[in-house]
Each structure stands twice: as C-alpha cells, then as structure tokens.
Amino acid sequence: MGVLHPGTFWVIEKALAHDDDTEAALQTCRIRGWVDVLEDAIPNADVPPDMNPASIQWNRVLPIYKLTDAGWNAIHRTQGWVVGTFVVALVSLVVSSIAFGVGEIRAHSSNGTPTNITRPK
C-alpha cells in the first residue's frame, strides 16, 4: 500500500479483484458474519499507467470490509476446537450419568431397601 502524490490517494498494490466470483464470495462472507462493511461508497479507480493523479478516472464506488471475530475464528479454524470440546463434555456427562445410575441401582436391593455397607476391619 502506498500514497499517490499530489493528494492523498491510497494505492493498494494487490487489491481485491472486482469480478462476479469475488462479489459472490464477499456476499457469502457477509451472510455468515465473517466480514462487515466499514465504509460504503468509497471512490475507486484503477491507477493509470503514467501514475498521474490528475488522469485518474473515478469510475466506481466500493465498500471497505473489516474481518469480524467470527471471520478470524474461521481463518484459524477454532470452530473445530469448540465442537471437539463440546463432544468431550457431552460424552463425559453421559458416562457420569450412566455411572451414577448404575451406582444407584446397586445401592438398593431387589426389594427397594438400601443394603448395609460395612467398613472393612
């Protein structure tokens, strides 16, 4: 990124392509909550070959996007960790519930009264 003088024009060297595929991908990211629009209707143009700011044709307006926390999580793939920890917690809950139920069943005799528990001598 640089600044084109005279004036203060941002020049982004490897800017996002402006085609239908990119627009579809950006709309998908907006729907999923991965990006938000920071500014809408920012003047945009291609830099002329002579690099003269006076000959720039401002022929379109485009938004500036920011990456949200959900977008960073998608990049760093933290969703897999969250799902994995949830599965482990769920399995732990099921196993402990089964163990508690089995212990309760063993604590009662067949007629429903608790059995005597004695200490070893």
Describe the structure.
The protein is of the alpha+beta class and 121 residues long. The protein has 2 domains: 2-76, no CATH class; 77-114. Helix content is 42%, strand content 20%. The chain has 3 helices and 4 strands. The strands form 2 sheets. It has a two-stranded antiparallel ribbon with strand order 1-2. It has a two-stranded antiparallel sheet with strand order 3-4. The longest helix is centred in the last third of the chain and has 30 residues, at 78-107.
Q: Which outline best applies?
A: rod-shaped
User: How many domains?
Assistant: 2
* Strand ordering within the main sheet: 1-2
Radius of gyration: 31 Å
The tally of helices reads 3
Mean of the pLDDT scores? 82
Task: State the low-pLDDT regions, or none.
Answer: none
Largest sheet: 2 strands, antiparallel
What amount of the residues lies in strands?
A: 15-25%
Counted beta strands = 4
Structural class: alpha+beta
H/E element sequence: EEHEEHH
Terminal CA distance: 82 Å
Helix content: 40-55%
Descriptive labels:
rod-shaped; alpha+beta; two-stranded antiparallel sheet; 2 domains; 42% helix; 121 residues; 4 strands
Secondary structure: elements and pairs:
Elements: E1 2-4, E2 9-11, H1 20-32, E3 35-44, E4 60-67, H2 69-76, H3 78-107
Antiparallel strand pairs: 1-2, 3-4
